[in-house]
Every structure is written in structure tokens, then in C-alpha cells.
Amino acid sequence: MIAALDLFEDRGYEETTVVEIAKRAGLAKSTFFRHFPDKREVLFGGETMAERVTEAVTAAPATATPLETVAYALDAVGREVFTPARREFIARRRAVIAANLELQERLALKGLSLTRSMVGALKRRGVSDLTSCVAAELGALAWKIADERWSDGANGDEFSQVARRALDEVQAASAMC
Amino acid sequence: MIAALDLFEDRGYEETTVVEIAKRAGLAKSTFFRHFPDKREVLFGGETMAERVTEAVTAAPATATPLETVAYALDAVGREVFTPARREFIARRRAVIAANLELQERLALKGLSLTRSMVGALKRRGVSDLTSCVAAELGALAWKIADERWSDGANGDEFSQVARRALDEVQAASAMC
To answer: How close, in Å, is residue B1 to chain A by CA atoms?
Structure first.
């Protein structure tokens, strides 16, 4: 949410109140809390990411290997969340999060919860528990690498291209361990 | 720290103050804050885990593969932290953490920081960046699995045995992805 990000950048996350964010966004405080349970959540957009990932894993072709299935999830994230139009917002958000411990903690927990969603969706495809866990962890690592490379924006590649390359590299590296 | 854990169990994490913890442990509040930057930290024991892991990775034989090196780190954790005498404390701590979002967030961040320490130590052994990341993530997953199985305590195996088995399973699963 741009209004919150502007304020966090201008005067710091700690010093910004929910009332100020709501006012800047033209919302009543009660409306704010209907969308976000707390101030931190405004940067993370609720549970939509986990839903996208779960849907994409569920919809992947039955013949896809676990890591190919993860690649479909990364495609969906690129198509629907990490779009070219949002690249700048996401890079700015990254900088705000890096400056605040509370936000780093929330991000860390979000990451775990996203990985758990991916594990659950893979298991429902009949992938074994442990292979689901490993595929989701390798996918999360590829995601993180892709996120860094893509936000950097040195080349104009779309997120899904960057992510699929990262996933290939991660898979190759896992054979070297 | 047992005094803190007792209080968190008795009256909840939120309702317990640092003054109460310090009093129960027979410490001055200022002494408490010399050891722990905040109330949450009392359950996580500062940075000692990251140091143990880094030392063990550094001391592993030069011929060890990345995952064998990770296994040496898990051995050290079992020898020095997850000892049979601490099994009950760790199981109780796990239950307290599971009941509180703030503690889950801190644990998530600790996990990330531990993985980062492992990555750094592997890179200093000359392992490539990406292989270090993958080995550390697979190690972190094996650690999590081992922690669950070992705290459960159904059999009397030591942490390092449980962890090495989990690491073998994780490695085998990564070939199935």
C-alpha cells in the first residue's frame, strides 16, 4: 500500500501511526483494520500470496515433477504479484523492511507460512511428505534469489523467467551437495 | 532459562514482565538486560547457536562434502545444545513459542540468521555461493525434522543420530524432486 510505504520512508516505520496511514489513504481507521490486522501487515498484503501459490500448485499438470510444479507457482507469482508495474514498489518495500527488526520478523514468518502452504499443496498432489518439504524449501530459495535479481532490475526480464533460471540453478546445486 | 519458562507457562508470555523473570531467577533487572536484549530473547539464548554451528563447519575435515559438513554442525549442536538433559526444557519451550505470535516471529528470524551463518561458514571453506545456500537450507530442514522427532523423545536416540538420519532422508528426497 503506497500511502503506508510513503510514510514509512518519510518518517520511519516506528513513528508512523495507523491513523496517519488511514488518513493518507483516505480510509477510516476501522476500514484499515478490516483489511489489515496490524500496522506491519500493510506491507505484506494479507494471505493472497499463499492462495496464489496453492492454486498454481493445484492446477499444475499431473505429470509435472515436484520442482516443475513449484516453477508453475513461481510463474503465477510473477504474473499476478511480482509484475513489472510493481517492481519499484517491491524494491522500496524491501528497503523499509531491511531497516526494521519487527518487519524482518514478520517477513520471516510470512516466508515460513508460504513454504508451509506450498508443502500442503504438493502433498495434496500425492507427493511424499519429505519430498514436498524439500521441493518447497528449494522453491523458497529460488524465489528469494529471483526476488533479489528481479528487484535489482539490471535486465528487463520478467519475474517468472528470472525465477525459472534460479530454480534450475538451485536444482543443479543440490546435486553438488 | 527455566525461571522465564516457568512464568510463561504459568501466566502466559504476554502477562509476564522482565522484572518478574529477573526476580524469580534472583537477578537484578540490569543484569538481565546485560544477558538478553529483550524479553523474547530469554528463550533463545543469544547468539551461541550460530557460533557453535560456525565453529563446527570451520573445523570439519577439508574432504567433507557440503552436506557432510552440515552433519558435523548438527553433531556439535547435539553435543553442546540439544543434550539429553535439555530435552524436556526444549519441548516445553516449543509449546510456549507455539502459543505466541511474537515468539514465533523471533524464532523464524533466528532460523534465518542461523542459516545465514551456515552459508557464510560454508563459503569460507570454498564452497560456491549457491551450493552453500542449498546445503544450508537442506541442513536447516533436516534440523527442523530432527528437532521434532527428538523432542518427541519416543526413542532414546541422541540428537546427532536423529539429525544425521534426517539429513540422509532429506538428501535422498532432493534427488526425487
So the answer is: 22
